[in-house]
Design a protein that fits this description.
about 65% helix, 3 helices, about 0% strand, mainly alpha
Length: about 80
Amino acid sequence: MRVARPNPGLANLLLEQFGGAQGELAAAGRYFTQGLSEEDPGRKDLLMDIATEELSHLEIVGSIIVMLNKGAKGQLAEGIEE
């Protein structure tokens, strides 16, 4: 992915997808804890695989946020008001 110019407002919106209640980090945690309590080895492996995939989504969203903020200097606090 390539970002043409900084966009801290969009980066701010993506923070919810990154670490919000319905974001990638929360999803990974939910699948991981479900996997820990699962007794069936096949389902346990599946849940752990899904948790790992959610963590890769977290990495992607985080990288996009960093790209959108690169060079923004001082604009981060204003969020989507711009």
